[in-house]
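Example S7 (C-alpha cells).
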C-alpha cells in the first residue's frame, strides 16, 4: 500500500515501529501535494519545503510526543498557526501573518503533529461552498467541475485526494458535515464545549460553531477528537475529557435509529438524496440496528427563524468592526454584509424569542432521544453543484430565499449543539458522493463513533472508491 493511502493511525504505528520515518512521510506528502493539489486547490499555503524536511528529521531524532508524532497536518485557514498566513479567504487579511498558535494548533503540536500549511475555506467561513477572492475555489476530487462543499471544503478535499491523512475542520452550519459527505470521508461535529474555541472575544454568548476532526476512518476521527478535546480554564463552557478511542475497542450496542426523512416535507431534496439515504439505513438494519421513521418533531419554520436570528447575531458579533469602516465594508462579500447588517439590527426581544425557540427544541429533542438512540438526516439536501455557482438558488423546484437555506437540513443539530458524525454512504448515479448525519444526545460522541465504526467495517467507502486523480 502506498504511504498516502494509509490512514493516520497506521502511519503513526509505522513511525513508532521504525518501519517509516517522519522524513520519508514528509517527502511523500510533499510529492503527493505537488501531483494533485494544482487541480484540486485544497491546500492554499505550504510552508518552506526545506524547513518542513528539517522539522521531519528533527522529529525522527526526538522522543515520541504522541500519536501524531511526525504526521503532517494542514490547518483550516480560519485558525492561527504562528508564522503562517491567516487570510480567512478575505482580501482584507491576504497579508496577515499569525504571531502565535491558536489553542487547537497547540494541541496538535503537543501530540506531535507537523504543521505544513493551510487548507482553503470560504471568505470568513461563510457558506457551504469553498471559494474566495484570495485563493479561488476548491474543487471536488470526484469531479473537478463540482464544489467540495464548505466551509471545511479544503480539508475534506485534501483528505479525499490523499494529501492529508487527518485534518481539522469547524462547523457552524454543516461546515464539517457537508464537505465530508461530498468528499466521501468522515467528519465529526462534537458536542458544544468538547473542543474549546480560541479564548478570545466573547466566551459566553456566541456558541453556534465548534471545531472538530475529519478523517478517512472513524478510528482516526476518534483519535483526533481525543487530541482536541478537554476543558480550557479560560472558557466557561468547555468540558468533556476525551474518551472516544477507548470506546472504539468495543462494538456499538444495538442502536435504535430514528429516520427523520424530509422533516414532513419541510426539507426539499434533489432526486436521489432520499433514495441513497434510505438504502444506507437498510444496510444499518442488516448490521443489526433498528430503524424507525420519525414524524417531524418540531416546526421547521420556527427552528429556521431561530437559527438565522442567532447566526446573524453571532456573525455580527465577530465582524461588526469590519463593517463599521466603509473601506473594509466594501471588501466584504455581499452575503457577509447581509449577515452583519441583520445581526446589528436585532432587537433584544428578537434574540430572546429565538433563544426560547432553541430551548423548546432542545427539550423536545431530549424527549425524542429517550425514544431512540440516534437521529438521522442526510448531510446535504443536494448533490455537489457546479463549482462556479455561488450557491443553489432552488432545490427540487423550491426557491432558496437565502444563501444558506439549501443547508437547512443541518440546523436541527447545530441549533442546540448536539454531536454529529457524518458517515459516507456511497455514490449516486451521477458518480458523486453523499453522506448521512448521525445525531445523538449531548456527550454521546463516543457512541456515535462506535456506530460509525460498525458502518465502516462493512462499507469502507473511502478506501473502496478513492477519487481518480
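Recovered sequence:
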Amino acid at each position: 500500500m502506498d504511504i498516502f493511502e494509509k490512514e493516520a493511525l497506521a502511519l503513526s504505528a509505522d513511525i513508532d515501529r521504525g518501519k517509516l520515518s517522519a522524513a520519508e512521510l514528509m517527502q511523500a506528502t510533499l510529492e503527493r501535494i505537488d501531483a494533485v493539489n494544482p487541480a484540486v486547490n485544497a491546500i492554499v499555503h505550504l510552508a518552506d519545503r526545506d524547513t518542513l524536511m528539517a522539522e521531519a528529521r528533527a522529529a525522527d531524532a526526538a522522543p515520541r510526543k504522541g500519536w501524531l508524532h511526525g504526521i503532517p497536518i494542514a490547518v483550516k485557514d480560519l485558525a492561527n498557526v504562528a508564522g503562517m498566513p491567516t487570510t480567512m479567504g478575505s482580501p482584507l487579511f491576504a497579508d496577515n501573518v499569525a504571531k502565535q498558535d491558536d489553542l487547537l494548533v497547540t494541541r496538535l503540536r503537543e501530540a506531535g503533529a507537523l504543521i505544513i500549511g493551510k487548507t482553503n475555506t470560504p471568505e470568513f467561513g461563510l457558506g457551504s461552498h469553498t471559494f474566495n477572492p484570495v485563493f479561488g475555489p476548491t474543487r471536488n476530487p470526484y469531479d473537478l467541475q463540482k464544489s467540495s462543499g464548505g466551509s471545511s471544503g479544503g480539508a475534506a478535499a485534501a483528505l479525499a485526494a490523499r494529501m492529508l491523512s487527518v485534518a481539522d475542520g469547524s462547523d457552524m452550519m454543516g461546515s464539517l458535515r457537508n464537505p465530508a459527505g461530498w468528499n466521501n470521508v468522515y467528519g465529526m461535529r462534537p458536542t458544544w464545549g468538547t473542543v474549546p474555541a480560541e479564548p478570545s472575544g466573547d466566551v459566553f454568548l456566541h456558541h453556534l460553531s465548534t471545531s472538530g476532526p475529519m478523517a478517512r476512518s472513524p478510528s482516526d476521527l476518534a483519535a483526533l477528537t481525543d487530541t482536541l478535546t478537554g476543558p480550557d480554564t479560560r472558557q466557561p463552557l468547555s468540558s468533556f475529557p476525551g474518551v472516544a478511542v477507548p470506546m472504539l475497542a468495543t462494538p456499538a450496542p444495538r442502536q435504535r435509529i430514528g429516520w427523520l426523512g424530509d422533516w414532513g416535507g419541510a426539507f426539499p431534496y434533489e432526486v436521489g438524496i432520499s433514495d441513497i439515504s434510505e438504502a444506507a439505513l437498510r444496510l444499518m438494519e442488516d448490521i443489526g440496528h433498528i430503524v424507525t421513521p420519525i414524524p417531524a418533531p418540531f416546526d421547521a419554520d420556527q427552528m429556521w427563524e431561530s437559527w438565522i436570528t442567532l447566526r446573524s447575531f453571532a456573525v455580527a458579533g465577530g465582524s461588526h468592526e469590519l463593517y463599521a469602516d466603509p473601506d473594509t465594508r466594501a471588501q466584504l462579500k455581499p452575503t457577509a454584509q447581509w449577515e452583519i447588517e441583520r445581526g446589528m439590527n436585532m432587537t433584544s426581544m428578537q434574540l430572546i424569542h429565538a433563544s426560547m425557540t432553541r430551548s423548546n427544541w432542545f427539550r423536545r429533542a431530549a424527549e425524542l432521544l429517550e425514544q431512540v438512540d440516534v437521529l438521522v438526516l442526510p448531510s446535504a439536501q443536494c448533490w455537489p453543484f457546479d463549482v462556479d455557482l455561488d450557491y443553489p438558488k432552488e432545490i427540487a423546484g423550491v426557491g432558496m430565499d437565502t444563501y444558506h437555506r439549501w443547508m437547512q437540513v443541518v440546523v436541527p443539530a447545530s441549533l442546540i449543539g448536539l454531536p454529529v458524525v457524518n458517515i459516507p454512504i456511497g455514490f449516486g448515479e451521477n458518480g458523486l458522493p453523499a453522506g448521512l448525519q448521525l445525531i445523538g444526545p449531548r456527550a454521546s460522541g463516543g457512541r456515535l463513533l462506535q456506530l460509525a465504526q460498525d458502518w465502516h467495517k462493512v462499507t469502507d467507502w473511502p478506501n473502496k472508491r478513492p477519487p481518480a486523480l
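Notes on this example. The chain has a mean pLDDT of 96.
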